[in-house]
Amino acid sequence: MLKFVIKRLLISVVILFFVMFIVYALMYSLPTSYMEKTARELSSKAGAQKSAAEWLAELNAQYGMDKDVVTGFFFWLKSAVKGDFGDSWQWTVPVTQEFHDTIWYSFALGLLSFIFEVAIAIPLGVIAAKKQYSITDYAVTVVALIGISMPTFFVATVYKLIFSVKLGWFDISGMQSRNYVNLSEVGKFFDVAKHFVLPTLTLVTISIGSLMRYTRTNTLEVLNADYIRTARAKGLSERRVIGYHAFRNTLIPIVTILGGSLPGLFSGALITETLFSIRGIGYASYHSMVNGDIPFTMFYLSFMAILTLLGNLIADILYAVVDPRVRVN
User: Fold this and answer.
1) Is 106:266 a contact under the CB 8 Å cutoff?
2) Is the four-CA dihedral 218, 213, 308, 260 of positive or negative sign?
3) What is the pLDDT of residues 9-46, one digit of tens each?
4) Contact status, residue 260 vs residue 309, Cβ threshold 8 Å
5) How far is CA 306 from CA 3, 8, 42, 88, in A?
6) What residues form DSSP beta bridges with 94?
7) Rounded to the nearest 10 degrees, what angle do helices 294-322 and 2-28 cross at?
8) Averaged confidence pLDDT in the chain
9) Does 205 score more than 60 pLDDT?
10) CB neighbour list of residue 140: distance below 8 Å, 6 or more residues apart
11) How far apart are CA 3 and CA 6, in angstroms?
């Protein structure tokens, strides 16, 4: 296993190198108007001591844009390896600082959504499989298909209309109420938590469908296996058959999916965070991309590439851990 992990890590480093090169090449190919816009804005600020042309030359030199794409990439990579990704043009702070200030909001939102998704989708999928072709099965299937079919912005809008406009239970967007500064520390915590309810509900609604259907399909496949019929023939209770023998084997492919989704806890929900104005990493990356913030965009895309590679590695390891039949050569 250790040899397998080391080999995968080395392969991941090579893949990450080429992914980062592609990301840099895309940023390098953007129209120069982004750089020029930023240079004009910096030169027009109060107390600015440099002209737009001077700022433009400095920005190009800072990110290697005044060199050819290969030389510029290695120039940027040298700084990136040291943890220096430059300053964000959109947020006017170092990229790593903006990342630190926003990542924990995304993690909290992602963790809550992940917990509720697993707690709801897996039990319902198993129940639907146990009661195949029943009203329960059809109801679960309909709910799953609705969740899969509806886009994020539509779900968020419906929840805002119902719970914010009609019922007035939650604010439409934002992370704090108007009287936030007057609240105690405990009150501030619950005030922020209250603003995470609708975004969490939105993410759970659009994500449980696929996991529910996947759980149902795998459970049905397991329930039709020979060893399940043997367990029933031995007189084991249905709860024992389903809860122990069937469920354990159903989890094998599901754990692989969940393992791959764990890094997504840190990647942020770009659309949901933007719709609800949650200052997470997804919200920051969206506004950075829209406003041509090349330093932050390059950092975020590189970060996403690392999470994807890490997720695939975790999924492979979990598959071998959960299923004793899987062995690594």
Assistant:
1) yes
2) negative
3) 888 889 999 998 998 888 777 765 667 777 777 777 77
4) no
5) 20, 13, 32, 20
6) 87
7) 160
8) 82
9) yes
10) 124, 125, 127, 128, 212, 216
11) 5
